[in-house]
Amino acid sequence: MKRIGLLGCGAIGTQIALAINSGQVQAELTHVYDYDKSKAESLVARLDKKPTIVENPHLLSSNNVDLVVEAASQDAIKNHALSIIQNRKDLMIMSVGALLDESVFDILFDACHEFKKRIYLPSGAIAGLDAIKSVKSELESVTLITTKNPKALAGAKFFETKNMDVHSIKEKTVIFEGAAKEAVTLFPANINVAALLSLAGLGSEKTLVKIVADPNTNKNTHKIEASGIFGKISIQVENVPDNTNPKTSRLAILSAIECLHTICSDDIKIGT
Ligand SMILES: NC(=O)C1=CN([C@@H]2O[C@H](COP(=O)(O)OP(=O)(O)OC[C@H]3O[C@@H](n4cnc5c(N)ncnc54)[C@H](O)[C@@H]3O)[C@@H](O)[C@H]2O)C=CC1
Ligand SMILES: O=C([O-])CC(=O)C(=O)O
């Protein structure tokens, strides 16, 4: 059975830990870390089989684990992903936006080859990555239109740079249009899906992102429009937000659990 270390004990990390605890994912959660120790403590209190709370992220991967699951932040990837791979652990990443920094991507790509380790990127809060990957060589345009309630967008760096108060948005408003590369920097906790789409398809400069703030929605909606020699793809998901973190969709959590289940089980793999 695989031994898992968890980096980040918030909305996604908690549900992953509970899925392991219930046996839905056949693995052993052995170590957890969160820079807010109270988050790690409240998570461990909910588990029957208690993992060790480690005092720093390096202890996650220097211990005897097979895979580290990151569900923390882009900074956590920038600061810790390389040492996890160098410690010869596989890594599952939720804060995929960090990989649009080419220096981060290249270093991790090379490290995976050198240390013969894998990085897994679950499909997260979107659908259709299988198709985007398959048509990659024939893609001509990809646009992601993401609509969230302003309260799910609150706190993003974007609002500091624009001197805009998110709570003053009273009607459906396009607040950002630009390349995925810029979107993941300005909305680091909201649009990691744009990074997934970029990495699967046209890259972070050519993947276009539109972010819409809609005070009348209670869903996190992601619409992908892609076209090229192969034809057209149009996929929309209307996600229920997690009840502890409105930025994060329920689908992102379920996708992380399904990805981990696939990694941890020896059976039939469905889909690309
Ligand atoms: N790939 C995808 O489709 C999606 C990715 N995400 C991303 O996944 C990550 C986790 O999401 P949630 O669990 O919803 O967030 P959350 O905010 O509920 O939980 C994150 C936890 O990680 C901890 N944390 C943050 N930075 C840390 C660091 N450098 N070191 C240690 N602990 C750290 C926080 O204290 C918090 O407890 C976020 O970066 C989020 O943006 C979220 C939704 C979809
Ligand atoms: O969960 C979502 O709807 C998307 C999200 O926050 C992200 O990609 O960072």
Task: Explain the overall architecture.
There is one protein chain. The chain has helices at residues 11-21, 37-45, 58-62, 74-86, 102-115, 129-134, 150-153, 157-162, 180-186, 192-200, 250-264, and strands at residues 2-7, 27-33, 52-53, 67-70, 90-93, 119-120, 139-148, 173-179, 207-213, 220-228, 231-239. The chain is α/β, with parallel strands linked by helices. It folds into 2 domains: 2-124 and 252-264, 3-Layer(aba) Sandwich (Rossmann fold), CATH 3.40.50.720; 129-245, Dihydrodipicolinate Reductase, domain 2 (2-Layer Sandwich), CATH 3.30.360. The strands form 2 sheets. A 6-stranded parallel β-sheet has the order 3-2-1-4-5-6, sandwiched between helices. 44% of the residues are buried. Bound molecules: 1,4-dihydronicotinamide adenine dinucleotide and oxaloacetate ion.
Radius of gyration: 18 Å
Shape assignment = globular
Poorly predicted ranges: none
Please give the CATH class of the largest domain: Alpha Beta
Biggest pleated-sheet summary:
6 strands, parallel
Order of helices and strands: EHEHEHEHEHEHEHHEHHEEEH
> How many discrete structural domains?
2
Number of helices: 11
Distance between the amino and carboxyl termini: 24 Å
Instruction: Report strand order across the widest sheet.
Output: 3-2-1-4-5-6
Bound molecules: 1,4-dihydronicotinamide adenine dinucleotide, oxaloacetate ion
Helical residue percent?
25-40%
Oligomer: single chain
Residue-averaged pLDDT: 97
- CATH architect. name of the largest domain: 3-Layer(aba) Sandwich
Structural class: alpha/beta
The fraction of residues assigned to DSSP E strands is: 15-25%
Active site: 222
Function: Specifically catalyzes the NAD or NADP-dependent dehydrogenation of L-aspartate to iminoaspartate.
Domain Aspartate/homoserine dehydrogenase NAD-binding: 8-122
Family: Belongs to the L-aspartate dehydrogenase family.
